[in-house]
Write a structure and sequence with these properties.
This protein has about 270 residues and is mostly helical. The chain folds into two domains: about 1-90, Orthogonal Bundle (Helix Hairpins), CATH 1.10.287.70; about 120-260, no CATH class. It contains ten helices and no strands. Helix 8 packs antiparallel against helix 9. It starts with a helix and ends in a 15-residue tail after the last helix.
């Protein structure tokens, strides 16, 4: 997208120079007014050529040929690049919508429950919970402050074996869902979400690879906690970005999301009169 915009800017600048050359040149060689010179230059580069104005001098005819050679090509390039840029933006917008739809399904099926489960095991959740109680008055700046807080949050996870068992069963039950998500052709365009999925699936694989999560050595519990912590950090960051997107684009979905906020103990899906 940036490359296309840059190319269009260069071509448009060349076209502007050609038009300026034509206008100035016809005013000098043919003695035309600015409006007539502009009109003559436009009908020349667009190959319309009404014939109501024609160069009378030899210098004017040379200039007209030069404008045709330089202007027609640049004009066509401007039109083609502008059309391509508009189409490209529409394609990008369509892909973004598909990606956010996939994110919504992910948080509905896996993400929100996973956040709720892991957050309960974070003994330092109180350090950031207050900054994650999102409401409809939040600005872009508040979302950024929350993301910064999350990135510097050093979570301390204490996960009991029975909690690991429940987490293992939950993720095991989402195997088909993960497979379907990875089949999505737009996934590779969302690098952070791809990284999050890999981290979550790695946690699933680590947990399901162990036949018994009871009585593991402390070193193994610490290993599992590190894997879960990695997924936790990525999950919270992606959740914040998705919540900001919902707030601006889909208020009704945002309303449900804040009523199921995993970091707000007072949140309730039931809508009550204020």
């Amino acid at each position: 997208m940036e490359k296309s915009t840059h190319s269009l800017s260069i071509i448009a600048a060349v076209f502007t120079l050609v038009m300026a050359l034509g206008i100035g040149g016809f005013m000098i060689t043919e003695g035309l007014s600015f409006s007539d010179a502009l009109y003559f230059s436009v009908v020349t580069v667009t190959t319309v050529g009404y014939g109501d104005i024609t160069p009378k001098t030899e210098a004017g005819r040379v200039l007209a040929m030069l404008i045709i050679i330089l202007g027609v090509g640049t004009f066509s390039a401007v039109v083609a690049n502008a059309t391509g840029l508009v189409f490209s933006r529409k394609v990008q917008q369509f892909r973004r919508e598909k990606l956010h739809m996939m994110l919504g399904i992910f948080f509905s099926e896996v993400g929100t429950q996973l956040l709720t489960t892991i957050a309960r095991c974070d003994s330092k959740i109180g350090d950031i919970a207050g900054m994650l109680r999102i409401d409809s008055t939040w600005s872009r700046r508040e979302f950024q402050k929350a993301r910064d807080a999350v990135r510097f949050h050093d979570a301390t996870l204490t996960i009991a074996p029975d909690e690991l068992e429940r987490l293992c069963e939950f993720l095991r039950g989402k195997t088909d869902f993960f497979l379907r998500v990875f089949e999505n052709p737009y996934l590779t365009e969302h690098e952070t979400f791809s990284e999050l999925l890999r981290a979550v699936i790695h946690v699933k694989e680590e947990l399901t690879a162990r036949t018994d999560l009871e009585g593991l050595p402390d070193s193994d519990y610490r290993h599992l906690a590190r894997d879960i912590k990695r997924a936790y950090g990525l999950l919270v960051d992606e959740w914040l970005q998705y919540m900001e997107y919902l707030m601006h684009r889909y208020p009704y979905l945002f309303s449900l999301a804040i009523r199921t906020n995993p970091f707000d103990e007072t949140a309730s899906v039931v809508v009550r009169a204020s």
